[in-house]
Amino acid sequence: MAKQKAKIGVLGASGYTGADAVRLAARHPHIEIAALTANTYAGKHMQEVFPHFFMLDLPKLETWESVDWTKLDAVFCGLPHGTTQEIIAKVVEANPKIKILDMSADFRLRDMATYAEWYGHEHRAPHLQGEAVYGLTEFYRDDIAKARLVACPGCYPTATLLALVPIAKAGLIDTDDIIVDAKSGITGAGRGLKQNTLFSESGEGLSPYSIAKHRHAPEIEQEVAAAAGVPVTLNFTPHLIPMSRGELCTSYVKLAKGKTVDDLRAALEAAYKDEPFVFVAPKGVVPQTQNVRGSNYVQVGVFADRIPGRAIVVSTLDNLVKGSAGQAIQNMNLMLGYPETTGLEQIALFP
Q1: pLDDT tens-place string over residues 183-197
Q2: What are all long-range contacts of 300-303, with beta carbons under 8 Å and residues at least 24 apart?
Q3: Is the pLDDT of residue 178 over 90?
Q4: Cα(104)–Cα(115) distance, integer angstroms
Q5: H-state helical runs in the chain
Q6: 152 is catalytic
Q7: Which residues contact 83 (CB under 8 A, 6 or more apart)?
Q8: Which of 16, 31, 108, 237 pairs with 118 at a CA distance of 20 to 30 A?
Q9: Structure pTM?
C-alpha cells in the first residue's frame, strides 16, 4: 500500500533537471518536498536561484552532507556524472531503504569497463552498479517497480530508443546500418557557464558537438543490442539547437529483407498502444518539438525514404521532462506504488 505522502529530496536542485524535478513534484498529490541540496547555494531560498518558484513554500537549499537521509522515502539526483556515485553510496549507507532516481549517467551502463572507457575513470560505486535498473519505463516497468536504484536514461537515448527498440526487437531493420541525427535545446548542456551556450554564441546558429564520441552513444547501443540480441554499433551525432528545451532525433535505418515501412509503423503502434505517454503519429504527420514542450509525452513518426529499402523514424520529446525529470517522476510513481501517470499529465505548452 502506497504511503499517503512520500518525503522526497532533490540532489542538485540548482541545475535544470533538478529544478524541473521540483516543478513537477510541487504539484504531485502524494509528494512532500522535504530536502533540496545545492552546495554552492546552501542557505538560499529556491526562488533566489530559480525566480519562477516564487509562489512555492520550499525548504531552503542545503549541502547534501547536512540532510538527514533517514527521513526521506526517495531522492532525485541531478548531479553531474562522477560525483553522483560516491554521494549516492553515502545516501544508501545512511538509509538502505531509500529509493534512488538517478538522472545522471553514473549507473546507466551495465558494463563497468565501458563506463571507464567513456567517462575517463573507474566506477566508484561498483557494489551498487549491479542492482541499478535502466529506467526507460516503457521497457523495464516491472523491474523498476521492484528496484531501489533506477538509472534514468539520458534525453537522447530516451528519444532514440523509443524509436528503435521495438523495430530492432522485431527484426525489422539491419542493426549494422543505423544513423541517428539528434538535436537538443540548450538546457541539455546544463546550467553551468560555458562560452558555446551564451546567447550571442548559440542564439542564431546550429552546431554539432562531440562528433563520433558522445557519451550517450554506448547507452543507446547497449539497449538496441539487448533488444536485437546482437552487438550494435551505430552512428550518433548530436547538435545544439537555439531553443531552451526540446529534442528531436531522426534515425535513418535499413529495412530487413522483405520488410516495409508499414511493418515498422505496425510494430511501433503495437508496442505503444497501451502506453500513456508515447504516441505514434498518424501516417504523414511529422513529429515536432512544439507538440511536446513542457510535457512528458513522446511523439514518433515513420516515413519511407526515397532510397529503396530504407526508412526514417523521427522521435521528439522535452529533454527536461520525459528526457529527464518527468521520466524520473514516472519511475518514482512505480517504485512507490502510485498510478504511473500521477503528476505528469500536463498538455504541451503551445505556442
Answers
A1: 999 888 788 778 888
A2: 300/162, 300/163, 300/268, 300/272, 302/261, 302/264, 302/265, 302/268, 303/261
A3: yes
A4: 13
A5: 16-25, 46-49, 83-94, 112-119, 126-129, 137-146, 155-169, 199-202, 217-228, 261-272, 326-336
A6: no
A7: none
A8: 16
A9: 0.96
CATH number, domain of 199, equals 3.30.360.10
Grid coordinates of 96: 538502505
Q: DSSP assignment, residue 102?
A: E
> In this predicted structure, what is the pLDDT of residue 1?
45
| Domain, as residue range, for 175 | 156-319
What does DSSP say about strands 235-240 and 247-255: parallel, antiparallel, or unpaired?
Answer: unpaired
Neighbours of 145 (CB within 10 A): 17
For residues 174 and 295, membership in a common domain is answered with yes
pLDDT band at 202 (very low <50, low <70, confident <90, very high): confident
Rounded Cα distance, 242 and 338, in Å: 37
Distance CA 179, CA 173 (A): 12
Q: How many domains does the chain have?
A: 2
Do 90 and 190 lie in one domain? The reply is no
Written as one letter, the residue type at 324 is: S
Q: What's the full length of the chain, in residues?
A: 351
DSSP SS3 for 207: strand
User: Cβ(269)–Cβ(172) under 8 Å?
Assistant: no
Q: At what angle are helices 112-119 and 217-228 packed, to 10 degrees?
A: 150
3-state secondary structure 191-227: CCCCHHHCHHHHCCCCEECCCCCCCCHHHHHHHHHHH
